């Protein structure tokens, strides 16, 4: 089960950090046997860790995939901020290049970081066909991570992104 996009968008960042982990569908979401000091969300019986453990398309499944990716590329990836799919390749490139690919596109925020990581973020509630710039080809890209629930459709320089999908590619030059 995929988590609804922007589920906590209206909650301040401090409040999100204070939310209790919803472990299961038992009383108080399995967080405590006492009365919690903050209200448990009403949907805890649906959105909890126990329901996501075996679902690769869940938020928990996404985090598992990210940790596996980090381990696979541990020599190359110093850190990953999952919420924006921002990647630092090495300490020496923390202040490295950042190139926005399509500033006029109101649906997809696309950029290349440190000349070797391509990030595509679809901020639209609709699927989008995103065309890569001329100097980036799909044959030079390796999909590292996607929040989509199906294999990515890649054709020529066209990438099909689901609603609210984010994808990270390694550019092989």
Description:
The structure is a single chain. This protein has 173 residues and is α+β, with helices and mostly antiparallel strands. The chain folds into 2 domains: 13-52, no CATH class; 79-171, Sandwich (Immunoglobulin-like). 14% of the residues lie in helices and 25% in strands. Strands 3-4-5-10-7 form a 5-stranded antiparallel β-sheet. A 3-stranded antiparallel β-sheet has the order 6-9-8, with no helix packed on it. A hairpin with a 3-residue loop joins β4 (108-113) and β5 (117-122). The longest helix is centred in the middle third of the chain and has 14 residues, at 59-72. It is elongated and about 60 Å long. The N and C termini lie far apart (36 Å). Mean pLDDT is 75; it is low at 1-5 and 78-93.
Strand order, sheet with most strands: 3-4-5-10-7
Distance between the termini: 36 Å
Oligomer: single chain
Give the mean pLDDT: 75
The CATH class label of the largest domain is Mainly Beta
- The helix content, as a percent range, equals 10-25%
Describe the SSE topology:
Blueprint: H1 13-18, H2 49-52, H3 59-72, E1 79-81, E2 86-88, E3 98-100, E4 108-113, E5 117-122, E6 128-131, E7 141-146, E8 153-155, E9 158-161, E10 166-171
Antiparallel strand pairs: 1-2, 3-4, 4-5, 5-10, 6-9, 7-10, 8-9
């Amino acid at each position: 089960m995929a988590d609804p996009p922007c589920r906590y968008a209206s909650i301040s960042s401090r409040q999100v950090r204070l939310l209790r982990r919803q472990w299961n569908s038992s009383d108080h979401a399995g967080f405590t046997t006492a009365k919690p000091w903050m209200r448990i969300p009403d949907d805890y019986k649906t959105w909890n860790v126990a329901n996501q453990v075996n679902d690769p398309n869940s938020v928990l499944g996404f985090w598992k995939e990210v940790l596996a990716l980090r381990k696979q590329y541990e020599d190359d990836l110093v850190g990953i901020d999952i919420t924006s799919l921002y990647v630092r390749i090495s300490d020496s490139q923390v202040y490295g290049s950042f190139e926005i690919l399509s500033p006029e596109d109101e649906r997809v925020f696309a950029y290349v970081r440190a000349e070797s990581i391509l990030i595509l973020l679809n901020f639209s509630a609709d699927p989008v066909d995103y065309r890569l710039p001329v100097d980036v080809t799909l044959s030079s890209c390796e999909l590292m991570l996607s929040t989509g629930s199906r294999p990515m459709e890649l054709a020529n320089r066209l990438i099909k992104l689901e609603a609210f999908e984010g994808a990270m590619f390694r550019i092989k030059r």
